[in-house]
Design a protein that fits this description.
The chain is mostly helical and 74 residues long. The protein has a domain of 51 residues. Helices cover 65% and strands 0% of the residues. The chain has two helices and no strands. The longest helix is centred in the last third of the chain and has 27 residues.
């Protein structure tokens, strides 16, 4: 059980690194390369950037849960 949880935790860690790198900084970031510059909403952020933020928050939540689970099971 612990090994499977540790593997899942490692995969979430790598996904989190990739998602954070995709976010745009001051210069636009990698998300503008994949079409993030199109279709902006009224708030000034793009739809792709909002979806990327939601996905990142979901992965952060799962990463936190696996961290806590590894503390209790490890």
């Amino acid at each position: 059980m612990t090994y499977v949880l540790a593997l899942f935790h490692t995969l979430l860690c790598l996904a989190l690194i990739g998602l954070i790198l995709l976010h745009s900084g001051k210069g636009g970031g990698l998300s503008s390369t994949f079409g993030g510059g199109m279709g902006s909403t009224f708030s000034g952020t793009t739809v792709m950037e909002k979806n990327l933020t939601r996905l990142t928050l979901a992965v952060i939540g799962l990463f936190t849960l696996t961290t806590v689970a590894l503390i209790f099971f490890g």
